[in-house]
C-alpha cells in the first residue's frame, strides 16, 4: 500500500470528483438567491446531504417556516436512516467512531457495502475526501458566485436540473410506477403552492403514497 492510499481509499476519488461540480453549483445557487455566503457553507459542513440542501436553500430563500425546512430535509434524508441501519448490521465499531456515520452518503454506503465489512479507520479513508471536496466546492461556488457572469451561473443551474432529470429518467426506466409518483407529487406541489413551503412537503408525501399504492410490475412479472 502506497503512502497516498494509506490516507485516501482509491474508491473515494471518483466519488469526490462527482461531488465537486454539484457542490460548486450549490454555492452558486445560494449566491443567486441572495443568501449570505456563510449559509450554504454551513449547510454543507453540518448537513452534507446533497438534494436536501438544495431544497432547504430554496425553502429558506422563499421565506418558508423553519419547521417546514426541517421536515423537508428530514423526509428527503429519511432513506439514510435505513442505510445506516443496514450498514451497522455489518460493522461492529465502538461507540466513539460511530460518529463517522455522519459522513455516510448514498455513494459511500454502496462503496463500503461491497466486500468485507470495513473497520472504522477503513471507512474514514474512504469518507473524508468526498466530504472535504463537498465543503470546498461549496465554498468555491459561494465565493466565486459574486464575480462570475450571469450566463455561467445559469449554465450551472441548468446542469443541476439536467442531473435530476437524468436520475428521474433512469429510475422511470427501471420502475415505471415512479412516473405516477412523480406526476402526483408534482401536481400536489403546484396545486398547493399558495401554502408556500408546505406545498413541497405535501407533494413529497403524496408522491410517496402513490408509489407505495401502485403494484410493482417487476415483481408481478417474476415467475
Written account of the structure:
The chain contains twelve helices and no strands. With 223 residues, it is mainly alpha-helical. It has a domain at 3-152. Helix 2 (12-32) packs parallel to helix 8 and helix 3 runs antiparallel to helix 8 (120-144). The mean pLDDT is 78.
- The assigned structural class equals mainly alpha
> If you average the pLDDT, what whole number results?
78
Number of H- or I-type helical stretches: 12
- Name the helicity range: over 70%
Shape: globular
Radius of gyration: 19 Å
String of helices and strands = HHHHHHHHHHHH
Largest sheet geometry: none
Kindly report how far apart the N and C termini lie.
Answer: 47 Å
Low-confidence stretches: none
> How much strand?
under 5%
Considering the chains and any ligands shown, give keywords for the structure:
single chain; 223 residues; mainly alpha; 12 helices; 74% helix
Summarize the structure.
With 223 residues, the chain is mainly alpha-helical. 74% of the residues lie in helices and 0% in strands. The protein has a domain at 3-152.
List the topology elements.
Elements (H helix, E strand, L loop, with lengths): L2 H5 L4 H21 L5 H9 L4 H11 L4 H11 L1 H13 L15 H8 L6 H25 L5 H25 L2 H15 L6 H16 L3 H5 L2
Helix pairs in contact: 2-3, 2-8, 2-9, 3-8, 4-5, 5-11, 6-7, 10-11
Amino acid at each position: 500500500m502506497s503512502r497516498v492510499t494509506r490516507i485516501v481509499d482509491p474508491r473515494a476519488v471518483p466519488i469526490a470528483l462527482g461531488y465537486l461540480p454539484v457542490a460548486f453549483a450549490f454555492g452558486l445557487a445560494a449566491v443567486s438567491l441572495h443568501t449570505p455566503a456563510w449559509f450554504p457553507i454551513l449547510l454543507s459542513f453540518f448537513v452534507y446531504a446533497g438534494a436536501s440542501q438544495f431544497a432547504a436553500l430554496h425553502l429558506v430563500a422563499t421565506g418558508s417556516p423553519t419547521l417546514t425546512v426541517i421536515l423537508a430535509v428530514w423526509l428527503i434524508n429519511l432513506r439514510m436512516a435505513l442505510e445506516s441501519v443496514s450498514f451497522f448490521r455489518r460493522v461492529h465499531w465502538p461507540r466513539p467512531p460511530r460518529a463517522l456515520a455522519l459522513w455516510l452518503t448514498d455513494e459511500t454506503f454502496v462503496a463500503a457495502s461491497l466486500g468485507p465489512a470495513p473497520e472504522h479507520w477503513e471507512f474514514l479513508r474512504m469518507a473524508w475526501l468526498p466530504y472535504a471536496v463537498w465543503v470546498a466546492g461549496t465554498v468555491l461556488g459561494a465565493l466565486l458566485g459574486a464575480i462570475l457572469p450571469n450566463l455561467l451561473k445559469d449554465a450551472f443551474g441548468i446542469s443541476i436540473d439536467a442531473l435530476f432529470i437524468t436520475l428521474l429518467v433512469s429510475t422511470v426506466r427501471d420502475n415505471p410506477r415512479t412516473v405516477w409518483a412523480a406526476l402526483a407529487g408534482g401536481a400536489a406541489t403546484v396545486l398547493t403552492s399558495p401554502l408556500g413551503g408546505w406545498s413541497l412537503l405535501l407533494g413529497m408525501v403524496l408522491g410517496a403514497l402513490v408509489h407505495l399504492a401502485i403494484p410493482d410490475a417487476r415483481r408481478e412479472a417474476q415467475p
